[in-house]
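step: validate -> pass
step: tokenize input -> pass
step: predict -> running
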Amino acid sequence: PESVAFAILDVLADFESEGKLKNLPKSKKFPVKTILAILLFKQYYNLPLRDAQHYGRKFFGANIHYSTLHNWEKKLNLEELTNHLLKKLQKLPYASTQADSTIITNKKRAG
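step: predict -> pass
step: emit ->
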């Protein structure tokens, strides 16, 4: 999970440097980049919101309530970020990701 968390932060840094995160809604309490990181982690591992809240504390240092994550998940379109994340994760050794990157792809096809 640590490798995935670092890959998420890399993808967000790339997007930020390209100016693709400028038009996101603002958050009063938490950096939007942190919210995005937690939601991408949640989506990658297909986690419930309460688990995403736990991993948000563990890997991203933010205790964001699951209901707040749910509201942001509804607001944001994570598809482009998810696609970039998958490309970056495919470059990592399989053992370091501890999850198959087809999880999100299969979820998209089914949904």
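step: describe -> Residues 30 and 53 are 13 Å apart (CA to CA).
step: cleanup -> pass
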